[in-house]
Amino acid sequence: MSSPHDPHSTGNTNASHEELVALAHALQAHIDLCSEILQVVKNEHQQLKANQVDDLTQLQGARQGMLEKLSAAQSEISSHKDAWDALSQSQKQSMPEIGKRLSLCTDLIMKIVSLDRENEQLMLRNKIVPPGHLPPAERQNPNLVAKIYKNKP
To answer: Quick one: which of 38, 112, 32 has its CA closest to 76?
Structure first.
């Protein structure tokens, strides 16, 4: 009779193996997407450092659809995460490719966040601010509200 951790056993082990293979594929897709995002952020950084940006919408056009892709990739990884969490530490160590992919995902995310933060600072220095981050006109001109009420009959 085979034990639950025997690679030749059937049943849940096969399902777990299939889940882990799916997790590995999902992680690779996430790595590819993070690499794509990092390249976009690097391009933004180069343009901002060279002060070649006049229009922020042009600069951030490459980001279109990235959030949806990232959410889908995260959902895919989450759907297979339970199979990974159910493994013992020794079983996880026997699958180094998943650990390497997790580590690579983390590294890429940290690079993206760090470089994007630098880009935000460069945008502020160059006085390039996304329209959604501008304060409303009333806050820019506090007397505007008083003038409006003063002119009312």
So the answer is: 32
One-letter amino acid for residue 2 of the chain? S
Backbone φ, ψ for residue 53 (5° rounding): -115, 120
Locate the domains of the chain by residue range: 12-150
* Confidence at residue 144, expressed as pLDDT on a 0 to 100 scale: 65
Q: At what angle do helices 66-85 and 12-49 cross, to 10 degrees?
A: 150
Distance CA 18, CA 30 (A): 18
Q: How far is it, in rounded angstroms, from Cα 44 to Cα 67?
A: 17
The CA-based angle 101-106-110, given to 5 degrees, is 145
Query: With pLDDT > 90 as the criterion, what percentage of the chain qualifies?
Result: 33
pLDDT greater at residue 57 or residue 50: 50
The yes-or-no verdict on residue 1 having pLDDT over 70 is no
Residues with Cβ < 8 Å from 16, sequence gap 6 or more? 83, 86, 87
Residue 61: predicted pLDDT: 78
